[in-house]
Amino acid sequence: MDEQALGKRLQLARKRAGLTQQELCQKAGLSYSTLAKIERGAIRSPSVFTVAHIATATGTPLEELLETVDKSLSSPAPTSSKKRSKTGVRFVYFDVNGTLVRFYQRAFTDAAQDLGVAADVIETLFWRHNEGLCSGRNSLEDFNREISKELGATAFDWHKYYMENVQAMPGMDELLRWCAQHYEVGILSNNAAGFIDELRRKKLIPDVEFKTIVDSCQVGAVKPEPKIYELAQELAAAEAAEILLVDDTRSFLTARIVWFVT
Q1: Other beta carbons within 10 Å of 39
Q2: What is the pTM of this model?
Q3: Which of 8, 49, 128, 152 sits most deeply, having the most CB atoms within 10 A of its CB?
Q4: Model confidence pLDDT, tens digit, residues 22-51
Q5: Measured between alpha carbons, how far apart are the two ends of the chain, in Å?
Q6: Would you state the CATH architecture of domain 3-70?
Q7: What residue segments make up the domains of the chain, in order of their start?
Protein backbone atom coordinates (compact mmCIF):
# COMPACT_ATOMS: atom_id res chain seq x y z
CA MET A 1 0.00 0.00 0.00
CA ASP A 2 1.28 3.47 -0.89
CA GLU A 3 0.58 5.42 2.31
CA GLN A 4 1.35 8.79 0.70
CA ALA A 5 -1.09 8.19 -2.16
CA LEU A 6 -3.75 6.89 0.22
CA GLY A 7 -3.34 9.90 2.49
CA LYS A 8 -3.66 12.30 -0.40
CA ARG A 9 -6.74 10.52 -1.71
CA LEU A 10 -8.46 10.49 1.65
CA GLN A 11 -7.71 14.18 2.07
CA LEU A 12 -9.25 14.98 -1.31
CA ALA A 13 -12.26 12.78 -0.50
CA ARG A 14 -12.74 14.75 2.72
CA LYS A 15 -12.55 18.07 0.88
CA ARG A 16 -14.93 16.81 -1.78
CA ALA A 17 -17.40 15.95 0.99
CA GLY A 18 -17.00 19.48 2.38
CA LEU A 19 -15.66 18.29 5.74
CA THR A 20 -12.95 19.75 7.95
CA GLN A 21 -10.57 17.35 9.66
CA GLN A 22 -12.41 17.84 12.93
CA GLU A 23 -15.80 17.16 11.33
CA LEU A 24 -14.51 14.00 9.67
CA CYS A 25 -13.04 12.81 12.97
CA GLN A 26 -16.44 13.20 14.61
CA LYS A 27 -18.27 11.36 11.81
CA ALA A 28 -15.72 8.57 11.49
CA GLY A 29 -14.94 8.17 15.19
CA LEU A 30 -11.24 8.96 14.82
CA SER A 31 -8.84 11.02 16.85
CA TYR A 32 -7.55 14.19 15.23
CA SER A 33 -3.94 13.08 15.49
CA THR A 34 -4.70 9.77 13.76
CA LEU A 35 -6.48 11.42 10.84
CA ALA A 36 -3.75 14.05 10.47
CA LYS A 37 -1.08 11.35 10.34
CA ILE A 38 -3.04 9.29 7.80
CA GLU A 39 -3.50 12.29 5.52
CA ARG A 40 0.23 13.01 5.72
CA GLY A 41 1.00 9.38 4.89
CA ALA A 42 2.78 9.01 8.22
CA ILE A 43 1.01 5.81 9.31
CA ARG A 44 2.32 2.66 7.73
CA SER A 45 -0.47 0.46 6.32
CA PRO A 46 -3.48 2.10 8.01
CA SER A 47 -6.18 -0.33 9.12
CA VAL A 48 -8.68 -1.14 6.40
CA PHE A 49 -11.40 -0.63 9.02
CA THR A 50 -10.18 2.92 9.61
CA VAL A 51 -10.19 3.59 5.88
CA ALA A 52 -13.70 2.10 5.71
CA HIS A 53 -14.95 4.52 8.38
CA ILE A 54 -13.46 7.43 6.44
CA ALA A 55 -14.96 6.17 3.18
CA THR A 56 -18.41 5.92 4.78
CA ALA A 57 -18.16 9.38 6.35
CA THR A 58 -17.12 11.00 3.06
CA GLY A 59 -19.52 9.02 0.88
CA THR A 60 -16.70 7.39 -1.07
CA PRO A 61 -17.06 3.68 -1.95
CA LEU A 62 -14.37 1.75 -0.08
CA GLU A 63 -13.73 -0.56 -3.02
CA GLU A 64 -12.99 2.39 -5.30
CA LEU A 65 -10.64 4.01 -2.80
CA LEU A 66 -8.66 0.84 -2.23
CA GLU A 67 -8.64 -0.09 -5.91
CA THR A 68 -7.30 3.31 -6.96
CA VAL A 69 -4.60 3.17 -4.31
CA ASP A 70 -3.42 -0.16 -5.64
CA LYS A 71 -3.29 1.36 -9.12
CA SER A 72 -1.18 4.24 -7.74
CA LEU A 73 -3.45 6.95 -9.10
CA SER A 74 -3.29 10.34 -7.44
CA SER A 75 -6.83 11.17 -6.35
CA PRO A 76 -9.89 9.39 -5.03
CA ALA A 77 -12.38 7.96 -7.47
CA PRO A 78 -15.43 10.13 -8.08
CA THR A 79 -18.19 9.60 -5.52
CA SER A 80 -20.97 10.14 -8.05
CA SER A 81 -21.88 8.86 -11.49
CA LYS A 82 -19.64 11.46 -13.12
CA LYS A 83 -17.05 10.17 -15.55
CA ARG A 84 -13.34 10.57 -16.09
CA SER A 85 -12.13 11.22 -19.65
CA LYS A 86 -9.48 9.10 -21.33
CA THR A 87 -6.97 11.86 -20.52
CA GLY A 88 -7.96 11.84 -16.84
CA VAL A 89 -10.21 14.92 -16.77
CA ARG A 90 -13.14 14.77 -14.37
CA PHE A 91 -13.72 18.49 -13.62
CA VAL A 92 -14.36 21.21 -16.22
CA TYR A 93 -14.21 24.94 -15.45
CA PHE A 94 -15.91 27.39 -17.82
CA ASP A 95 -15.04 31.05 -18.28
CA VAL A 96 -17.99 33.45 -18.66
CA ASN A 97 -17.19 36.48 -20.82
CA GLY A 98 -16.25 35.41 -24.32
CA THR A 99 -17.06 31.78 -23.53
CA LEU A 100 -20.54 31.33 -22.06
CA VAL A 101 -21.67 34.82 -23.10
CA ARG A 102 -20.58 37.56 -25.49
CA PHE A 103 -21.04 41.31 -25.21
CA TYR A 104 -17.95 43.40 -25.88
CA GLN A 105 -18.33 45.12 -29.25
CA ARG A 106 -22.03 45.91 -28.95
CA ALA A 107 -21.59 47.33 -25.44
CA PHE A 108 -18.76 49.61 -26.52
CA THR A 109 -20.66 50.69 -29.63
CA ASP A 110 -23.73 51.67 -27.60
CA ALA A 111 -21.58 53.60 -25.12
CA ALA A 112 -19.85 55.39 -27.99
CA GLN A 113 -23.18 56.47 -29.46
CA ASP A 114 -24.45 57.74 -26.10
CA LEU A 115 -21.29 59.59 -25.16
CA GLY A 116 -20.08 60.77 -28.56
CA VAL A 117 -16.69 59.08 -28.11
CA ALA A 118 -14.99 56.54 -30.37
CA ALA A 119 -15.70 52.94 -29.36
CA ASP A 120 -12.02 51.98 -29.41
CA VAL A 121 -11.23 54.77 -26.93
CA ILE A 122 -13.87 53.45 -24.54
CA GLU A 123 -12.62 49.89 -24.94
CA THR A 124 -9.04 50.97 -24.19
CA LEU A 125 -10.14 52.67 -20.97
CA PHE A 126 -12.29 49.68 -20.07
CA TRP A 127 -9.34 47.31 -20.18
CA ARG A 128 -7.13 49.77 -18.33
CA HIS A 129 -9.47 49.72 -15.32
CA ASN A 130 -10.99 46.26 -15.68
CA GLU A 131 -8.55 44.43 -13.40
CA GLY A 132 -9.32 46.69 -10.46
CA LEU A 133 -13.04 46.14 -10.99
CA CYS A 134 -12.84 42.37 -11.37
CA SER A 135 -10.49 41.91 -8.42
CA GLY A 136 -12.89 43.76 -6.15
CA ARG A 137 -10.35 46.49 -5.37
CA ASN A 138 -12.62 49.05 -7.02
CA SER A 139 -16.40 49.17 -6.90
CA LEU A 140 -18.54 49.46 -10.02
CA GLU A 141 -19.28 53.05 -9.01
CA ASP A 142 -15.55 53.82 -8.82
CA PHE A 143 -15.03 52.11 -12.18
CA ASN A 144 -17.77 54.19 -13.84
CA ARG A 145 -16.47 57.37 -12.22
CA GLU A 146 -12.89 56.86 -13.41
CA ILE A 147 -13.90 56.11 -16.99
CA SER A 148 -16.36 59.02 -17.06
CA LYS A 149 -13.62 61.32 -15.80
CA GLU A 150 -11.13 60.22 -18.46
CA LEU A 151 -13.78 60.50 -21.18
CA GLY A 152 -14.96 63.89 -19.98
CA ALA A 153 -18.47 62.43 -19.73
CA THR A 154 -20.97 61.98 -16.90
CA ALA A 155 -23.15 59.09 -17.98
CA PHE A 156 -20.90 56.04 -18.35
CA ASP A 157 -22.75 53.09 -16.80
CA TRP A 158 -20.98 49.79 -17.41
CA HIS A 159 -23.73 47.67 -15.85
CA LYS A 160 -26.27 49.19 -18.23
CA TYR A 161 -24.16 48.76 -21.37
CA TYR A 162 -23.13 45.23 -20.41
CA MET A 163 -26.55 43.87 -19.45
CA GLU A 164 -28.34 45.46 -22.41
CA ASN A 165 -25.97 43.81 -24.87
CA VAL A 166 -24.85 40.52 -23.33
CA GLN A 167 -25.99 37.40 -25.18
CA ALA A 168 -25.65 33.69 -24.63
CA MET A 169 -22.83 32.27 -26.74
CA PRO A 170 -24.29 30.07 -29.52
CA GLY A 171 -23.66 26.37 -28.93
CA MET A 172 -22.41 26.75 -25.36
CA ASP A 173 -25.73 25.78 -23.79
CA GLU A 174 -25.54 22.33 -25.35
CA LEU A 175 -21.85 21.93 -24.56
CA LEU A 176 -22.20 22.96 -20.92
CA ARG A 177 -25.21 20.73 -20.35
CA TRP A 178 -23.40 17.77 -21.91
CA CYS A 179 -20.36 18.38 -19.72
CA ALA A 180 -22.53 18.71 -16.61
CA GLN A 181 -24.09 15.32 -17.35
CA HIS A 182 -20.72 13.59 -17.57
CA TYR A 183 -18.31 15.62 -15.42
CA GLU A 184 -18.32 17.96 -12.46
CA VAL A 185 -18.41 21.54 -13.71
CA GLY A 186 -17.69 24.98 -12.33
CA ILE A 187 -17.26 28.63 -13.31
CA LEU A 188 -13.88 30.40 -13.21
CA SER A 189 -14.31 33.98 -14.35
CA ASN A 190 -13.03 37.55 -14.11
CA ASN A 191 -16.14 39.64 -13.51
CA ALA A 192 -17.62 42.57 -11.63
CA ALA A 193 -19.51 42.00 -8.39
CA GLY A 194 -23.00 40.57 -8.92
CA PHE A 195 -22.71 40.10 -12.68
CA ILE A 196 -22.50 36.29 -12.65
CA ASP A 197 -25.51 36.02 -10.33
CA GLU A 198 -27.53 38.31 -12.60
CA LEU A 199 -26.55 36.36 -15.71
CA ARG A 200 -27.73 33.17 -14.03
CA ARG A 201 -31.03 34.75 -12.98
CA LYS A 202 -31.59 35.87 -16.57
CA LYS A 203 -30.79 32.34 -17.82
CA LEU A 204 -27.94 33.65 -19.97
CA ILE A 205 -25.79 31.12 -18.16
CA PRO A 206 -27.44 27.68 -18.44
CA ASP A 207 -29.13 26.41 -15.29
CA VAL A 208 -26.90 23.45 -14.49
CA GLU A 209 -25.46 22.26 -11.20
CA PHE A 210 -22.13 24.02 -10.74
CA LYS A 211 -20.03 22.40 -8.05
CA THR A 212 -18.22 25.67 -7.45
CA ILE A 213 -18.15 29.22 -8.81
CA VAL A 214 -14.82 31.03 -8.59
CA ASP A 215 -15.79 34.69 -9.05
CA SER A 216 -12.72 36.94 -9.22
CA CYS A 217 -14.28 39.84 -7.34
CA GLN A 218 -15.19 37.54 -4.45
CA VAL A 219 -11.79 35.88 -4.10
CA GLY A 220 -9.72 39.04 -4.64
CA ALA A 221 -7.68 37.68 -7.55
CA VAL A 222 -8.01 37.62 -11.32
CA LYS A 223 -6.81 35.36 -14.08
CA PRO A 224 -3.92 34.91 -14.82
CA GLU A 225 -2.76 35.37 -11.20
CA PRO A 226 -1.62 32.09 -9.59
CA LYS A 227 -3.85 32.58 -6.54
CA ILE A 228 -7.10 32.17 -8.46
CA TYR A 229 -5.99 28.93 -10.12
CA GLU A 230 -4.76 27.50 -6.83
CA LEU A 231 -8.07 28.34 -5.18
CA ALA A 232 -10.02 26.88 -8.10
CA GLN A 233 -8.13 23.61 -7.74
CA GLU A 234 -8.77 23.50 -4.00
CA LEU A 235 -12.50 24.14 -4.44
CA ALA A 236 -12.73 21.48 -7.15
CA ALA A 237 -11.05 19.02 -4.74
CA ALA A 238 -9.20 17.54 -7.69
CA GLU A 239 -5.68 17.06 -8.91
CA ALA A 240 -4.42 19.67 -11.37
CA ALA A 241 -4.20 17.07 -14.13
CA GLU A 242 -7.90 16.26 -13.61
CA ILE A 243 -9.10 19.81 -14.37
CA LEU A 244 -9.85 21.31 -17.78
CA LEU A 245 -10.42 25.05 -18.32
CA VAL A 246 -12.58 26.24 -21.23
CA ASP A 247 -11.58 29.86 -21.87
CA ASP A 248 -11.30 32.20 -24.86
CA THR A 249 -8.21 34.11 -23.65
CA ARG A 250 -4.92 32.46 -24.61
CA SER A 251 -2.89 34.08 -21.81
CA PHE A 252 -5.29 32.68 -19.21
CA LEU A 253 -4.94 29.20 -20.70
CA THR A 254 -1.15 29.48 -20.81
CA ALA A 255 -0.89 30.74 -17.24
CA ARG A 256 -2.87 27.88 -15.76
CA ILE A 257 -0.72 25.13 -17.33
CA VAL A 258 1.13 24.80 -14.03
CA TRP A 259 -2.14 23.78 -12.37
CA PHE A 260 -4.56 22.47 -14.96
CA VAL A 261 -4.63 20.21 -17.98
CA THR A 262 -3.27 21.74 -21.19
Answers
A1: 20
A2: 0.70
A3: 8
A4: 999 999 888 998 898 888 888 877 877 788
A5: 31
A6: Orthogonal Bundle (1.10)
A7: 3-70, 91-100+168-258, 104-165
